[in-house]
Amino acid sequence: MSSIDNLAQLFMKFPGIGTRQAKRFVYFLLAQDPYFVESLAREIAELNKSIAQCESCFRFYPRTGVTNLCSTCAEDADNTTLLVIEKDPDFDTVKRSGSYTGRYFVLGGTIPVLERDPSSKIRIRELLARIERGAVDGLSEVILALSANPEGDFTREYVAKTLTPLAEKFSISITTLGRGLSTGTELEYSDSDTLKHALKNRG
Amino acid sequence: MSSIDNLAQLFMKFPGIGTRQAKRFVYFLLAQDPYFVESLAREIAELNKSIAQCESCFRFYPRTGVTNLCSTCAEDADNTTLLVIEKDPDFDTVKRSGSYTGRYFVLGGTIPVLERDPSSKIRIRELLARIERGAVDGLSEVILALSANPEGDFTREYVAKTLTPLAEKFSISITTLGRGLSTGTELEYSDSDTLKHALKNRG
What does the sequence similarity comment in the record state about its family (chains A, B) (predicted)? Predict the structure, then answer.
């Protein structure tokens, strides 16, 4: 096997990349100037050296040296709420919105609806431990901020059920993001499930 | 800017990759085991060392050492025909079909319909030089095997027009791939352009 095929096989492991696009990536790299290719190889090789995973929220952050916590977990913030999100990019979205000032926890994925071993797909044990630690610090609400789709719904139900005994023990409430019309939605084009939630959550 | 953003910006240069997918690639790499990431960085860094571009047909091939020609250009084949293809993967497709035994030339792309400087998008000068060399060796036909879409049509017209003086000088004919129904096509669902060609090329 040539190194074209070797590299294509590695690219095929990337999310959403099939055989054809993997090959296209390799030919694209072959056509680039050597400086670009060198930079890419170096950035990939050094990614793990400069990026660490936060011990508290599990998101990836630029390593700073002294602490094992990301800048957000290290700063003096509201300890009463914990926002559970699916993946790293969701953190940026929430942070940018400026509408949340509490703590974060990255669940690391969602659970496929037919999954037999749900706990293998997400950081549920780590979340339980985080809540137990949080309870000492005044945690009073866990917000499950997962996707509004079947997989997100299934994951939310599983997480809520698993957290319930611990939440009851420490009187912590488990909430979810409100459902309804997204800003910019025209009523004419909204699906019936969205409409159902919008009617239920009317204010 | 963190190395997450740095690497995401490099991935955004990849064909068909936008901001979101570039970031997803970085988080995917952060979640992989170090062995995978190291292999990827190494394969990318060494790609150019093990792969060369053929001096005659311009396709990329595993470097073998002695010659600057790929295995297909180096072998003893039919010198009378030259098949002009758009890109490297097209070579594999033709080769696999087993229906062509002559020489190849990789044009390196197609020309966008509104392009002002068509010669900058494809290897037209290299093709002219190749044909001139080929004429000495008995080249009698150049087959333009480009895509059957507007950009392919535009490129084919441009290439045919540019080659004409040279082709006439050496009595080389310029042909294109036949157009008609693809195998498996149902007449009911074929577009009118395909049908037009199929009727014209009936046999």
Answer: Belongs to the RecR family.
List of domains in chain B = 3-52 (1.10.8), 77-176 (3.40.1360.10)
Q: Tell me the shortest Cα–Cα distance from B120 to chain A, in angstroms.
A: 15
CB A31 within 8 A of CB A21: no
Q: Which two tokens stand for residue B186?
A: 């149902």
For every residue of A156-173, DSSP letters joined together read HHHHHHHHHHHHHHTT-E
Rounded to whole angstroms, the maximal C-alpha distance in chain A is 64
CB-nearest to B43 from A7, A23, A36 is A7
Reported as a single tens digit per residue, the pLDDT across B74-131 is: 888 899 999 999 999 889 888 888 888 899 999 999 999 888 898 889 999 999 999 9
- B132 vs A: CB within 8 A: no
Closest-CA residue in chain B for A39?
Answer: B10
Q: pLDDT-based confidence at B185, cuts 50/70/90?
A: confident
Local confidence band at A179 (pLDDT 50, 70, 90 cut-offs) = confident
Contacts of A48 in chain B (CB under 8 A): 30, 34, 37
Residue B16 with chain A: CB contacts under 8 Å: 21, 24
Number of neighbouring beta carbons within 10 Å of residue B122: 23
Please name the residues between 81 and 100 in chain A that touch chain B, using a CB distance below 8 Å.
87-89
Helix (H) or strand (E) holding A176: strand A173-176
Residue % of chain A over a pLDDT of 70: 99
B133 touches chain A (CB under 8 A): no
**Average pLDDT across chain B, whole number:** 90
Does A63 contact chain B (CB < 8 Å)?
no
Assembly ipTM: 0.80
B109 to A157, B89, B112, B122, B137: CA distances (angstroms): 51, 12, 10, 6, 26
- B170-B146-B164 Cα angle (round to 5): 25
Q: B23 near B8, Cβ under 8 Å?
A: yes
On whether any CB of chain B is under 8 Å from the CB of A45, the answer is yes
Residues of chain A positioned with their CB less than 8 A from the CB of B34: 48
Burial of A40 (0-12, 13-18, 19+ CB in 10 A): buried
Whether B44 and A47 lie within 8 Å, measured CB to CB: no
